[in-house]
Automatic annotation (TrEMBL):
Coiled coil: none
Native species: Paenibacillus albus
Keyword set includes Transferase: yes
Protein name (Swiss-Prot/TrEMBL): Porphobilinogen deaminase
Domain Porphobilinogen deaminase N-terminal: 11-222
Length: 321
């Protein structure tokens, strides 16, 4: 039953309670309010905070805990229970397959997909001293950084982005690696020392994009979310996620993919270019493919098949243990 106050439906928005999650949820609500005003839609919005398993186990290595969607299970339950009507996720934390009855109702316009460095002394990757201690718990990042700079000493760093930035100082890191998108959403761009080019450090699938999950049966919310969807971002993310799905990956294994629209195909549809990587944790092996096509799902499958033919499955099996 929709929740009605003074004759208007109140759409309840679920979110994790990290500073980033709250900020991006607030930004999506602002966009939805603007869409409602423009289109004369009679909805109000309310935020409901939800604690997920991923939030409770930030002190252990997530890849060891395993399981995809550590940040979404409780949120999906709240959607099923009608405690919330939609949920804002970082696309890269969203599992490849959504449960029956739920759907991704919108992929808003993507912000900067790149990773970046925050370093002591504002140094770039090239400028970091020999053997510099770099904090990241992402195998995708460590694989690519070690590949570019085998001398770096990569160490695990956990926590939300605010606590990682504090640890840069308190735990003697020379630099940490974070997604530019999170910093951008928090208006912390000023802390960024250097951006890592997409080709040097291929981003996580969906990085910089959001996904808005809702119930398939909720026609009102679906119609509202359709107005927030950015078709170009959705196309690119769909190619990246197809690649991830074909490799059976989550965000805690060394897989990266980045798609952009590079032109028009012969039939007038958008021409996509996808770069996908699979690497070993130590960076000694880094397999990369870049290809173009106009069918996002086929493109992702094709890139995955090419990497599998070069041994990606074996690398992933080793990482998964
Ligand atoms: N895995 C954590 C996570 N999930 C989403 C973001 C922010 C970037 C984004 O929205 O893509 C981050 C932080 C980070 O990787 O630095």
């Amino acid at each position: 039953m929709p929740y009605i106050v003074d004759g208007r439906r109140v759409i309840v928005v679920g979110t994790r309670q990290s500073a980033l999650a709250l900020t991006q949820t607030g930004q999506v609500i602002d966009q939805l309010k603007a869409i409602c005003a423009e289109n004369g839609l009679p909805y109000d919005f309310e935020i409901r905070k939800i604690v997920t398993k991923g939030d409770r186990i930030l002190d252990v290595t997530l890849s060891k805990v395993g399981g995809k969607g550590l940040f979404v299970k409780e949120i999906e339950q709240a959607l099923f229970d009608q405690e919330i009507d939609l949920a804002v996720h970082s696309m890269k934390d969203m599992p490849y397959e959504l449960p029956e009855g739920l759907m991704n109702g919108a992929v808003p316009k993507r912000v900067d997909p790149r990773d970046c460095l925050i370093s002591a002394g504002d140094l770039s990757l090239e400028q970091l001293p020999q053997g510099a201690k770099v904090g990241t718990s992402s195998l995708r990042r460590s694989s690519q950084l070690k590949n570019a700079r085998p001398d770096l000493q990569i160490e695990s760093i956990r926590g939300n982005i605010d606590s990682r930035i504090k640890k840069l100082e308190t735990e003697g890191f020379d630099a940490i690696v974070l997604a530019a998108a999170g910093l951008h959403r928090m208006s912390w761009d000023g802390k960024i020392s250097a951006y890592l080019a997409e080709q040097l450090c291929v981003p996580a699938v969906g990085q910089g994009a959001l996904g808005i999950e809702c119930r398939e049966a909720d026609a009102e919310v679906r119609e509202l979310l359709a107005l927030l969807n950015d078709p170009i971002t959705a196309l690119a993310v769909s190619a990246e996620r197809s690649f991830l799905g074909a490799l059976n990956g989550g965000c805690q294994i060394p897989i990266g993919a980045h798609a952009t629209i590079v032109g028009e195909a012969e039939d007038g549809s958008a021409l996509l270019e996808l770069t996908g990587i699979v690497g070993s944790a130590d960076g000694s092996v880094l397999l990369k493919e870049t290809l173009q096509g106009n069918d996002p799902v086929a493109l992702g499958l094709e890139a995955a098949a090419l990497l599998k033919a070069r041994g990606a499955d074996r690398i992933l099996a080793e990482v998964r243990g």
